[in-house]
Amino acid sequence: MSSLTTIEVNKEDMKFSAAHFTIFSGTERERLHGHNFRVSMSISSPANRNGLAFSYKILKDKIRALCDELDEYTLLPAKSPYLAIVEQGSQYQASFNGETLVFLKSDCKLLPIPNTTVEAFADYLLQRFLHDDDFVSRHDIAQVEMKVSSGPGQWGSCIWREGI
Length: 164
What we know:
Blueprint: E1 5-9, E2 15-20, E3 33-45, H1 56-70, E4 73-77, E5 84-88, E6 91-96, E7 99-104, E8 108-111, H2 118-130, H3 133-138, E9 143-151, E10 154-161
Parallel strand pairs: 2-4, 4-8
Antiparallel strand pairs: 1-3, 2-3, 3-9, 5-6, 6-7, 9-10
């Protein structure tokens, strides 16, 4: 069995700025606020006989593109059990615990996640990255870890392993 190498990329420009609120329960949520979220990723795969797993540039470009999709939006959790979101013309109306929050659709991204937390963002970005099955199979990827930070010292992560 050959050993695996791990490539980690964590660049200053791998980030997105977004507004969100975390839902803690059916009756408690944060107020709307924003962060400059940072994204980091590590990938494990065998190195080729030239000592290279794959080009870092490919990985950095993929992460930057994923960040660009979320940058400068209000992110809403479309799969929250506590938040009901309906479209009303050019707006989203989000109902939570008797309150109605109104957002311009053009300012929002509805994400297929249950909450707008760093761990949910990490899982979402990981699934979007893995959607490119060709990259994973072409480079014999064994493990991918996606991390999202909402501030210094605060990271959420999600891991995918081949065969699990």
